[in-house]
Specification:
The protein is 43% helix and 17% strand. It is built from 12 helices and 8 strands. Strands 3-2-1-4-7-6-8-5 form an 8-stranded mixed β-sheet, sandwiched between helices.
């Protein structure tokens, strides 16, 4: 049997609860199973993630000797992968059955080099305020691709040629490595497009502390990539540019039906749970002296 056309790359840490559903979703792909491989990279799990992944047929399990971050984990998989296309997703995502087919269609039919697919945030039946803030402020993949020139690695595909030309992800970054990678690729002349039919579902952060940790990490990543306070790539426009009111279409698309009072509550909570931690992470990282992230 020849090399697979696609290498699906998944970093994981303490993902035992979500891995079975991810593997079920990958096995349900309409794209022929013998034409793609699945590589998961453990980054210091303390649960049964590795045992679950190793017990799954058709999954290659790699591991760092010690935690190195999700971008370093993806790089380890890239070095072992055999496919001509890399498809990236996360351990807590659920790709729709035609995910890989749609991504490859976006690459081939549109003549693209990188494709960002839709990330559909899935709300619980009775969402709490942090989950609504998460939807209102994050994961608008179409907006990321069309206006900011990047796609998040929860749903990103690229040709091997891209990595051979520009290198892998910046492994030292805590966050924002997808932005840095895509901008580096498009600056080198590669074409990034959005494909709304390539869908993965992603859970929301339902607890305040989870959302605050996420946005703090995003702030650190923006500082590590050299973002300023203002300007098109600045940290402040990113943090304050999406309010509960502006995020109403995202909320309704996720199945929420918020009234005006609820939208105002989402708006106010967004500054406490997203903007403030993100700015704190950015400022904390800017005050530290660190070597540039490795690629």
């Amino acid at each position: 049997m020849g090399a697979p056309r696609v290498s699906v790359v998944v970093p994981m840490r303490d993902a035992g609860a979500s891995l079975p559903e991810l593997f079920d979703a990958l096995d349900a792909q309409t794209f022929e199973r013998d034409r793609f491989e699945v590589l998961v990279v453990d980054d210091g799990s303390r649960d049964d993630s590795v045992e679950i992944a190793r017990a799954r047929p058709g999954v290659t399990v790699l591991a760092h000797p010690r935690p190195a971050g999700s971008y370093a984990a993806r790089n380890l998989a890239i070095r072992q992968a055999r496919g001509e296309i890399f498809a990236f997703t996360d351990a807590d995502c659920r790709p729709e059955p035609d995910w890989l087919t749609a991504l490859l269609d976006g690459l081939d039919r549109l003549g693209a080099d990188l494709v960002g697919g839709r990330v559909a945030l899935s709300l619980p039946d009775r969402p709490r305020l942090p989950a609504l803030v998460d939807v209102a402020r994050h994961w608008d993949q179409e907006r990321f691709v069309r206006l900011q020139g990047f796609a998040v690695t929860a749903n990103l595909a690229c040709r091997r040629e891209v990595i051979e030309r520009i290198g892998t992800f910046a492994g030292g970054l805590r966050s924002d490595g997808d932005r840095e990678f895509c901008v580096r690729a498009t600056t080198a002349g590669f074409r990034l497009v959005y494909c709304g039919s390539a869908v993965v579902a992603h859970p929301t952060r339902d607890r305040a502390v989870e959302l605050m940790r996420k946005t703090y990490r995003h702030g650190v990543g923006r500082a590590q990539t050299g973002a300023g306070l203002w300007g098109p790539g600045g940290i402040l426009p990113m943090l304050i540019g999406r309010s509960g009111l502006n995020g109403e279409p995202m909320l309704r698309a996720a199945g929420a039906q918020p009234g005006t009072a609820r939208l105002l509550a989402v708006d106010a909570a967004g500054y406490a749970l997203a903007a403030a931690p993100g700015l704190a992470g950015y400022l904390a990282e800017r005050t530290r002296k660190r070597p540039p992230p490795s690629i």
